[in-house]
Amino acid sequence: MTEKTDLIEILNHINPGLLSYEEWCDVGMALKYEGRSADDWESWSMRDPGRYHPGECVKKWMSFKGSAEPRTAGTIIHLAQMQGWKPAASSDPGHELDWNDTIVVDPDWIEDREVTEPNSWNPKQELIRYLETLFEPGENVGYVTESFEKKSSDGQSKWVPKNNGHYDRTAGQLIEALQKTNDICDVIGDYDKQGGAWIRFNPLDGKYTRNENVTEFRYALVESDNMSIEKQNALVRELELPVAILVHSGGKSLHAIVKIDANDYTEYKKRVNYLYEVCQKNGMVIDTQNRNPSRLSRMPGIMRGGKKQHIVDTNIGKSSWEEWVDYIEGFNDDLPDIDNLESIWDDIPDLADELIDGVLRKGHKMLIAGPSKAGKSFLLIQLAIAIAEGRDWLGWRCAKGRVMYVNLELDRPSCLHRFKDSYEAMGIRPEHASNLDIWNLRGKSVPMDKLAPKLIRRATKAAKDKSQEFVAIIIDPIYKVITGDENSADQMAAFCNQFDKVCTELGCAVIYCHHHSKGAQGGKKSMDRASGSGVFARDPDALLDMIQLPLDDDKQKSIEDKAECRARVRYLEDHKLELPGPDDQLSVPQMQAWCDNHLKDDGWKVGGRHGSKAECDALAFKARKEAAAKTAWRIEGTLREFPTFPPVNLWFDYPIHHIENEGGFLQDIDPEEVKPMWQRASEARKKKNEKKGNKVLNDRIMAHANLVFDNSGKDGIPLSSVVEAWNLGSEKSVRYYIKHGGAQHFYIKDGLLYAKENASEGSGKGRK
Fold it and tell me: For residues 540 and 546, is the Cβ–Cβ distance under 8 A?
């Protein structure tokens, strides 16, 4: 907007009487922002005599203090376009329709459709038909019959409702009363035939007539008195508005009662705004003051200034709000053209470059799923570092590029420390840390449909040229930004579409993580483990699923033993001391003995060599402790663009994951969740009982050996002595134990207890 006069010319195309109060204020703020005066606003506002009050503009003008999102000349241009203004052809050669444009018809090419008054006039039947179409019998109806003539300062006048009218009678009561009379006034009362009468199109609670008294947000009013009746009729039908009933106002407009069917007031407002926007974009200059669900509309069956307020039609257009929205959004859908394979056979576009070799392409989506505390965030941080530095990640080569890590869970210091710790643990120098952008949003996160445009805007602004564009956006975790029910397929499909929008707008990959559902997972396919709808697993181009591998006592001890041995060998090497043979380096007892023999408690130094037994033991203990904290994992993949890779076995050794390099130690382990929980618990109890039983048996074998030694080496111990040595209550308890647990090792003969290995053949049959 280069000339101030241009703005006023555009403003003159806006009828203030068709604006809401908020839109009227927006005009004032825009004029002030663009350097105009309060007089300009007031002169324009005077065109709405019904709402203009002298001095109000100046008072309101003083309250405009500026805003983070200011109203500008663009606001006035938008409102003018909504009321049909178009720039001159020389200054606006046209523009490409964007996704917000919902152009269905061109009003200049629509033929007018005539509306005629009914020949046979039955006022009460008109009102009965209206009530039966819009209301249930038990619903309260609001209506107003009293009116007065309101004159403006320029001499114009209009008839307006005198009060809030009636609201305590049901549709059923009104219909019953109308059926018993021939005069509509016997039921609704007398009305002024110059002013007419009004009725509310949504049911009320019978207490009053405000928006909060509306019980069902069923309908909205579409009205335009700036177009001919014939043009209005044509546009309503051409737009396929889901009209429940169309009423001639007896004046300059048709009143279309449109099916909205909103669940609450919030949804009602959204749907009405959408309805009005579509109508305005398609050339219908509508009265936007009719947004309220408690609004009055013209009552059919009434005379007004010598003309009839009558029903034109019922149930026209689409049958429901949902059907109409689908119809509207089918126009100008901004979808790409259809490809004919033959025509592009020799010109098929190249595939996107690989971001992670054999796993993910640039511009595609990847999901990492796993249980809680699997270290998914650490895994994503490792990936971010690998991409930024152009390094390997879990054995896959990553293309180097700029990455944005969107942190939704950790506080800022914790997140930054994790990156630094991971760099150090990975043994990578931060030579390309400038490729890493971290957006910390803990406590500031918003739903994904709100975050996506902000993310696109930030990323676009950050990339000053093509070399600085992001190749990957990592979002961790998505449960913080999920909108809707994660078990709903359609809601999650809409949620995942936000990732597509980011991919498309920025041309980068989007990588995110999600948690497993509760319960056993090992028996499921990898793509069925993620919590919520199956959309999560089926939407991304690459799914990497993590599942924990259980380590039994033997494997856990083996891991800790190897860690201790490696620590001791490393200590000896660091101090340039002699090492034992290769086999002894794998044995904890041999390594401990070697260190005991070659290191002194207080340390020593001979010819530059030094060492301390206590220091070596401390390092060995630390190594065992760290090994005990390691967890084992397996990653399985489901890929859309590449062949599926063999399962990858990992160790999570805080703070990083690394591939197993111990010759298939984890290869044969089945995931813990393969067996049901009850079975795993039963086996654990059985194992615990067996261990306990073995200890008892060993203790009793030793106790029997001591009794034999005390008996001058002679076997055959009196049961009375065994009772005390085995800590049992009676000889009967000894016999019971031998029969049910110890028969493989002991037998009783002639009241004496013998060890099995000394028994004569068949002696077990001679127990007494």
Answer: no
Q: Is residue 636 a part of any domain in this protein? A: no
Flag whether 751 is in a domain. Answer: yes
Any idea what DSSP says for residue 212? G
Statement to judge: residues 545 and 597 lie in one domain: no
- Cα 113 to chain centroid, rounded: 47
Kindly state the greatest CA–CA separation across the chain.
135
Boundary (domain end) residue, out of 295, 329, 363: 329
Say what the pLDDT of residue 143 is: 97
The pTM of this model reads 0.51
Q: Distance between CA atoms of 611 and 569, rounded to whole angstroms? A: 13
Write the pLDDT tens digit of every residue in 383-439: 999 999 999 999 999 999 999 999 999 999 999 999 999 999 999 999 999 999 999
Residue 579 lies in a domain: yes
Label residue 430 exposed, middle or buried (CB < 10 Å: 0-12, 13-18, 19+): middle
pLDDT above 70: residue 476:
yes
Instruction: Give me the mean pLDDT over the 476-485 stretch.
Output: 80
| DSSP code per residue over 574-643 | HTT-----TTGGG-HHHHHHHHHHH--TT-EEETTEEE-HHHHHHHHHHHHHHHHH-EEEEEEEEESSSP
Which pLDDT belongs to residue 103? 62
Band (257; pLDDT cuts 50, 70, 90): very high
SS3 at position 259:
strand
Helix axis angle for 448-462 and 489-506, nearest 10°, is 10
Domain count for the chain? 5
* 695, two tokens: 């200890």
Residues 541 and 460 in one domain: yes
CA–CA dist 238, 232 (Å, integer): 10
pLDDT in the model for residue 768: 33
Residue type, 5: T
Picking from 337, 349, 325, 212, the residue whose alpha carbon sits closest to that of residue 277 is: 325
Residue that finishes a domain, picked among 629, 660, 692: 629
Residues 78 and 159 grouped into a single domain: no
Give the residue-averaged pLDDT of 680-695.
69
Long-range contacts from 128-132, C-beta under 8 angstroms, 24+ separation = 128/175, 128/178, 128/179, 129/300, 129/311, 129/314, 130/199, 130/245, 130/247, 130/299, 130/300, 130/301, 130/311, 131/171, 131/174, 131/175, 132/171, 132/175
- Range(s) of the domain holding residue 761: 677-766
Region 242-262 average pLDDT: 95
- pLDDT, greater one: 335 or 563: 563
Q: Is residue 505 part of a domain?
A: yes
pLDDT tens digits for range 44-79: 988 887 778 888 888 888 888 776 567 788 788 878
